[in-house]
């Protein structure tokens, strides 16, 4: 196995991660910087090797972190889209109500309230008249009964 210099491109290929991940992840960037700073591995095996168990664990952590980062970016995109939809709905609701339409609705509301008051008063008046008519009807029924009784009394007397 020949000695090759440690470069970011070599680490990206060997670890199977993106350059963006290496530059955005401080731990990964520090490890790559240290490896590049040490230069090419020595022929006696004292230099850094990318296939040691420690490096394999680092590679797994890097892949897991990159997957988590992709998932987080996807969730952020989803949340931003939802926020944009809700902001659009708010804007739509705000633009529906112009000053003119608000004034028109307020006027209609005032007119309807006045109409309700008038109808309530009319209902009260009609209920009073109905009550008076029922009272008159009961009085008339009693009076008719009294007159019928008097007629019966006069017709039975000799």
TrEMBL record:
<protein>
    <recommendedName>
        <fullName>Transposase</fullName>
    </recommendedName>
</protein>
<feature type="coiled-coil region">
    <location>
        <begin position="76"/>
        <end position="150"/>
    </location>
</feature>
<dbReference type="InterPro" id="IPR046229">
    <property type="entry name" value="TnpC-like"/>
</dbReference>
<keyword id="KW-0175">Coiled coil</keyword>
<dbReference type="Pfam" id="PF19776">
    <property type="entry name" value="DUF6262"/>
</dbReference>
């Amino acid at each position: 196995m020949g000695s090759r210099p440690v470069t970011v491109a070599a680490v990206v290929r060997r670890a199977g991660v993106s350059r963006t991940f290496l530059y955005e992840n401080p731990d990964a960037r520090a490890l790559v910087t240290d490896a590049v700073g040490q230069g090419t591995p020595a022929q006696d095996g004292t230099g850094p090797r990318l296939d040691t168990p420690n490096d394999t664990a680092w590679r797994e952590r890097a892949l897991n972190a990159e997957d988590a980062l992709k998932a987080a970016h996807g969730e952020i995109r989803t949340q931003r889209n939802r926020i944009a939809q809700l902001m659009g709905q708010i804007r739509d609701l705000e633009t529906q109500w112009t000053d003119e339409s608000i004034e028109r609705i307020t006027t209609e509301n005032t007119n309807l309230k006045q109409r309700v008051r008038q109808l309530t008063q009319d209902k009260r008046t009609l209920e009073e008249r109905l009550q008076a008519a029922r009272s008159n009807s009961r009085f008339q029924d009693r009076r008719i009964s009294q007159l019928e009784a008097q007629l019966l009394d006069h017709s039975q007397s000799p």
